[in-house]
Amino acid sequence: MKSVLASTILGIGHHVPSKVVTNNDLAKLMTTSDEWIVQRSGIKERRYIEHSGIGASDLALPASKMALEHAGITAKDVDAIIFATLSPDHNFPGSGCFLGDKLGLPGVPALDVRNQCSGFLYGLSVADAWVRAGVYEHVLLVGAEVHSTGIELNDRGRDVAVLFGDGAGAAIIGAAKEPGQGLKALEIHADGSGAKELWLEAPASAYDPRLTKEMIDEGKHFPAMNGKQVFRWATEKMPEVARSVMDAAKVTAADIDLFVPHQANLRINQFVGQKLGIPESKTVTNIEKYGNTTAATIPLGLSEAWREGRCKRGSNVLFAAFGSGFTWGAAVITL
Asked: Which of 126, 121, 94, 122 is nearest to 110 (CA)?
C-alpha cells in the first residue's frame, strides 16, 4: 500500500452491558445518594458486566463488529489492532491479542495502549501514522473497559466507585476517501508529576512481593484519586489542547459540528465547552447513562451520536480528553 495524505474514521461502533446500576442501587452499598452523585458528577446510572468471566475484549467484540459493518468491510480486512484499556482481561498478554483471536485474525499484530482516559487519542495517533505511512490499510482501534470488578463498593471507595462503568467503543481507521476528509490535527501530552493523583498502586512490580495482605487490607489494589487536582488539571489542559488543535486545523468553534469530550465529569465538559465557545447542543454527553468508561468514552460517544444523526460524513468533529498519567490530548477530524 502506498502512503496516503490523510486517515479518517471509516466506521464506528459501541457496546455496553445490559446490567443497569443506578445511583439508588449504589446507595444500598455505601453512604451516598442520587442527589449527591448527580450534583458531583452528572451521573445517574452506569452499566456493569452481567456476570464474572466477561473481560474488556468481550465487550470490544460486538463494538468491533458494529464498526466493521459501518465501514463496509469484514474482520479479514483488518491489518492491525490497537486496544486502549486500563482494565485488560489479564495483566498479560494484552487484550488486543484476545480480541484478535475472537475475531479470527491469526497473525494480525495487536498493540495494547495504556494511556487510560486519553487512550483512544493516543491510539488514534498511532493508527493515523500507520495508515498515512502505508504500513496498514485498515486499523481496528478499540477502547474498552470493565471497571465494575475493580472498584470498592463501600464507603471507603465511594468517591471513585460511583464514577465508573463498563463499556466499549471501536473505530476502523483507514485512508480518507474524499478531498477535505480526514484527521486535520492531533496532539497528545503527558506529565508524570501528577501520576499518583489518580492511580492504582498495587499489585506492582516495584514491590516485592507485588501484593500483600496488608496492601489488600489498606485497599491499595483499588484505584485512588485526588478529585480536586484532577478537576483543576482537566479544566486547564482540555481547553488548552483543544484550542491548539483547532488552530492547527485552521477551524474555529463555529466550524465544529460535534464536540466529543471524554466523559469524566459533566461539570468539566460544560466548563470546557463554555471556554471553547461550543454550545451544549453540539456537545456529546452520555455520562448520565454510562459513567466514566475511560478509554471507551470517546468512541462510544461518537458511535451513539452518529446513529442519532448528530454527525455524518463531512462533519467536523473535535475530540478532547484528560486522565490518569496525567495524560491529555485533542484532535480535529473531518469524518
From this structure: 94
Residue 78 identity:
V
Question: Does the pLDDT of residue 2 top 80, yes or no?
Answer: no
Taking the C-alpha atoms of residue 140 and residue 148, their distance in angstroms, rounded to an integer, is 25
What is the band of 86 on the pLDDT scale with cuts at 50, 70, 90?
Answer: very high
Catalytic-role residue among 117, 138, 311, 316: 117
pLDDT value at residue 80 = 98
* CA pair distance 157, 164, nearest whole angstrom: 12
Domain residue ranges of the chain, discontinuous segments joined by +: 7-175, 182-334
Q: Establish whether domains 7-175 and 182-334 are of one fold.
A: yes
At 127 the pLDDT is 98
291's grid cell: 459513567
Q: Is 117 a catalytic residue?
A: yes
List beta partners, residue 83: 112, 142
Q: Of these residues, 14, 15, 262, 316, which one is catalytic?
A: 262
Its pTM stands at 0.97
Catalytic residue among 115, 269, 292, 316: 292
How many other CB atoms sit within 10 Å of the CB of residue 260? Answer: 30
292 catalytic residue (yes or no): yes
Q: Is 269 a catalytic residue?
A: no
Q: Residue 41: how many CA atoms within 13 Å on its side-chain side?
A: 29
> 182-334, superfamily in CATH?
Thiolase/Chalcone synthase (3.40.47.10)
Of the candidate CATH numbers 3.30.70.3270, 3.60.15.10, 3.40.47.10, 3.40.50.1010, the domain formed by 7-175 belongs to 3.40.47.10
Instruction: Using pLDDT thresholds of 50, 70 and 90, give the confidence band for residue 268.
Output: very high
Mean pLDDT to the nearest integer, 234-240: 98
- Which residue intervals of 186-311 are DSSP H helices? 213-218, 227-249, 266-276, 287-290, 297-307
The 3-state DSSP class for residue 300 equals helix
Cα-trace Rg, the chain: 19
pLDDT of residue 16: 98
